[in-house]
Amino acid sequence: MQNPKKRLIELDALRGLAASMVVIFHYTFQFDKVFQSDLMKSIEFDVGKYGVQLFFIISGFVIL
């Protein structure tokens, strides 16, 4: 008999990666404006803005 509450570890890992992408995006997005520094200007993480969509798509699939 299969366990109906079985979690997909790969999806949990991908959801964690998506959340990390959002955190990194927020950290690098306005770093130069907040801290008046050009240190992080070349390290902007624009791909992180897609982390929110990825997170919600996976969450919707898991809830379903």
From TrEMBL:
The keyword Transmembrane applies. Keywords: Acyltransferase, Membrane, Transferase, Transmembrane, Transmembrane helix. Residues 9-63 form the Acyltransferase domain. The chain crosses the membrane at residues 12-29. GO terms for molecular function: acyltransferase activity, transferring groups other than amino-acyl groups. It holds the Pfam family Acyl_transf_3. This is Acyltransferase. It comes from Arachidicoccus ginsenosidivorans. The lineage of its organism: Bacteria, Pseudomonadati, Bacteroidota, Chitinophagia, Chitinophagales.
